[in-house]
Amino acid sequence: MTLRSKLIHAALLAATAAVPAAWAQVQEPAPPAQEYPSPATESQMPPGSEMDRATPAPGSDSAAAANITDEKIEKFADAYVAVQTIQEKAATDLQTAEDPAQADQVKANAESDMIAAVEKSGLNVDEFNQIVETMTANADVRERVAAKLQERQGGG
């Protein structure tokens, strides 16, 4: 699995954890972590790595939040819903994989599908991940994203 897809997985997990409880109640529970490959942690990444650079500096969350337009929030919500669907399907497919080669193929397909879904939304993977990171540090952005996700879940 590539660093980009690990960041998508980490971003998706962080986004799920970051949205308010009201929205989380609408969601089905995420598959247990052991069913899907775990994302890389900062301690596993070499210093100066992409994950290291993507971590916002203290005090920069308000500046980053100011750069997240409503249009980007819309695109992020579209990408998030698509990535979540792909991840859930992959987790189910991994449960039924008959051998390691088949499991690797499921993971590879999910990885490319998630990257494609993010890019189809109009964001690149780095933008997607940056929004997630900003959400974890900025309640305003978290609330804006949660509102868009609720619209998509509730149809309104």
Automatic annotation (TrEMBL):
This is DUF4168 domain-containing protein. Residues 28-64 are annotated as: Disordered. Residues 1-24 form the signal peptide. Keywords: Signal. It holds the Pfam family DUF4168. Residues 70-145 form the DUF4168 domain.
